[in-house]
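User: Thanks for the earlier help. One more: Cell surface protein. Can you show the sequence and predicted structure together?

Assistant: Of course, both are below.
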Amino acid sequence: MKKQIFNYAKVPAVLIAVMAFAASCKKDSSLTLQEHIRPVTAQSSPYLTQLFDFNPAPGQFDNTGLADTTAAKSILNGRQGLVSLGAWGGYIVLGFDHTVLDVAGKPDLIIYGNAFIGFAEPGVVWVMQDSNGNGKPDDTWYELTGSAQYKTGYLRNYSVTYTRPGCDTCSVLWKDSQGKTGVVKTNIFHTQPYFPIGIKANSYTLTGTLLPSSNIDNSNPSYITSAPFDFGYADNTAGGDQVDIANAIDSNGDRVTLKGIDFIKVQTGIQYNMGWLGEQSTEVGGAADLSQLKN
Ligand SMILES: [Ca+2]
Ligand SMILES: [Ca+2]
Ligand SMILES: [Ca+2]
């Protein structure tokens, strides 16, 4: 007997259209119910619109106009500003006015910084869905993995405690969760306190992911250079860094699937003293939803 093969060419076009519409309705309703997707509207901005938290690590720009709340707000609604996050672990938490969807096979976000050739200061990018739909970043952070994940010196669930120094111009001592100690070294170019004046306790602890410092070349101490990672980090390459929501991982390093995200956190990823250039410190100049960005 001749085997029957379903031939789409014989199905009326109108029936195919009805089938496609039914499939898309089913998909859309499941997104809305399960993911609290906030759709793009005519008023939506491609850029960040909300600042939720700014918690810098000590650094040479702390307590200056490059690392205060005004600087943190300057990166909203476009690309006019810049904020410095200080040494390892300093971070900023920001939000969009809509859910940034994961477009399959494409990067979804661009994070602007001030990196240039030979001077990357890579920051780890974290993303969060507003799973409980309350408009606040009180859900689960997922790291966006990049090319450093499997390199020696990469560490998740890492933390550093910074201690208030004995004088305003003294270097800031740190101790990490591995028992290692060091200083965020003060320099002659920036003579204000490096320990954030907003911190009232005598020490504070930051937690996140440590990136390896293996791309840093200190063979010429008068000009230490920092080459970028291949992909996946903020303040890594000139012109901004594109990252993909599909690269989200959980605290075990396993991939997770997110339909979209509402909040991002950028966090300085490397602990390193760059000599007269000061500490490695990620700068953020804003971010945008690539699918909404007009050329
Ligand atoms: Ca994507
Ligand atoms: Ca929430
Ligand atoms: Ca920088």
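User: Great, one quick takeaway?

Assistant: The mean pLDDT is 90.
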